[in-house]
Amino acid sequence: MSIYAYICFLFSISILLAFVTHKVSDKVQSTIAITASAMVGSLILLLFGSMGWLKLDVVATHIMEELDFKNFLLNGMLGFLLFAGSLGIKLPLMKDQRWEITTFALFSTLASTLMIGALIYYVAMFLGLQIDFIYCVVFGALISPTDPIAVLAIIKNLRAPKRLAMQVEGESLFNDGVGLVIFTTVFSVAFGGKEATGVGILSLFLHEAVGGVLFGLLLGVIAHWLISATDDGSLEILLTLIIPTAGFMLANYLHISGALAMVVSGIMIGNWTRRHGFSEQSQRYLDHFWEMIDHSLNSLLFLLIGLALLLVEFTWTSSLMMCLAIPICLMARYISVWLPFKVMQRFRRYNPYTLRILTWGGLRGGLALAMALTIPANVATMTGENISVDVRDLILLMTYAVVTFSILVQGVTIEKMIEHSKLVDPKRKAYLKLGSGDDYKPHV
User: Fold this and answer.
1) Is 178 in a helix, a strand, or coil?
2) Backbone angles phi, psi at 388, to 5 degrees
3) Environment class of residue 169 by beta-carbon count within 10 Å: exposed (0-12), middle (13-18) or buried (19+)?
4) Are the C-beta atoms of residues 414 and 154 closer than 8 Å to each other?
């Protein structure tokens, strides 16, 4: 069958799973339920395959390999998902949290990358696994940025306090540029034989991140002009599709950050064009149209994350590293957020649950898996028993463990934490005490 046929069937399965899980229990978010269902299905297929039954695991693995999850996400779905997510970002609220978002996206991502790399290196050494430090930093670089798709799909629907939600969502949307520069630089040193220089890193950052922002502004201006030039409601909505399709592809061909371009243009369309470009009818339909696309593509993505288990090869050594990678990533996330948070806390008041939610809500998702799949195979490392372990398989397994824990455990348990944050939110207390609405601004 063709790739298109595979996508059609998988897309239909994801929608049916969303329907079934919603009917069974509407308390569990559909994205989490779909991932869990796909993982259980993958385990069943692997079990049947190991027992020589049906051989469906071979067929399913072939489909996942043919689909090319990495390119399908990074060069296709990502543009739609980021654009849809950024449409709902309120610019005034983001400006109010600009220092927090910038600090977490820049400092916390870099600090987490280095901490995870160092901890993985020394833990592996303690276990007798000889792995170069640069490979450990590669893992740190791809797992440190929080995934905007996972965050927006899970956190956004829980209706956290607005300023707290903006800190989590804003960081996840804007740390892609930083994460990409770090990962690309470390990747080129680890597998391309290049030396990391300050000039090279700065040049890459300016080209990828700054170029992506400027290109996003250009896309937003062009789309705004086109939408403002017509009063046809259907055409106005269709014109927004130009951005995550041709706009995203053009950004990739120019080797600039398509992710940042989608975020910037989405914020412009969602704030500027929504008020001054769309007709009244289109304003009503804009959110419904993109929410439908966002929900359907998220269902497909989280199904693929669950099925990605078929691509992972387990060994005893790598399985142990997989289990240790989860607490290592959580600890690095907490420290990298705690350091700047304590400084900013001297100048602004925050919700008491802010640090906990920033740590536990820093979800990882399909983007980390896609980056892990770009690592070349057949780069071996050795254990003390002279047993060869492929670096790609080891990093992919650790990444998958962190991603699934993030979605299935953190994604499920974060709800109670957010509910508690609502009860102690300063804004809510001011509302109850003063009888005022969202107009007051004494706290963050």
Assistant:
1) helix
2) -80, 135
3) buried
4) yes
List Cα–Cα distances, 337 to 52, 176, 276, 334, in angstroms. 48, 17, 38, 5
Give whole-number Cα distances, 435 to 116, 280, 438, 443, in Å.
47, 32, 10, 16
Please name the helix (run of DSSP H) or strand (run of DSSP E) that holds residue 389, with its range, or none. Answer: strand 388-390
CA angle at 356 for the pair 350 and 357, rounded to the nearest 5°: 80
CA–CA separation, 45 vs 68, rounded Å?
A: 20
Element (DSSP H or E) covering residue 240: helix 233-240
Amino acid (1-letter code) at residue 215: F
Distance of CA 367 to the CA centre of its chain: 6
- Polymer length of the chain: 444
- Report residue 89: phi and psi, to 5°: -75, 125
| pLDDT of the residue at 156 | 67
The count of other CB atoms within 10 Å of the CB of residue 272 is: 14
∠ at Cα 126 (124, 129), nearest 5°? 40
Mean pLDDT by 10 residues, the chain (444 residues): 81 85 71 80 74 67 76 84 86 82 88 94 86 90 84 70 79 78 82 70 78 92 91 87 94 88 92 84 83 85 80 75 92 93 85 86 83 77 61 87 88 82 63 40 38
By C-alpha distance, which of 251, 245, 249 is closest to 217?
251
Which helix (H) or strand (E) segment holds residue 380: the answer is strand 380-383
Interatomic CA distance for residues 10 and 23, integer angstroms:
20
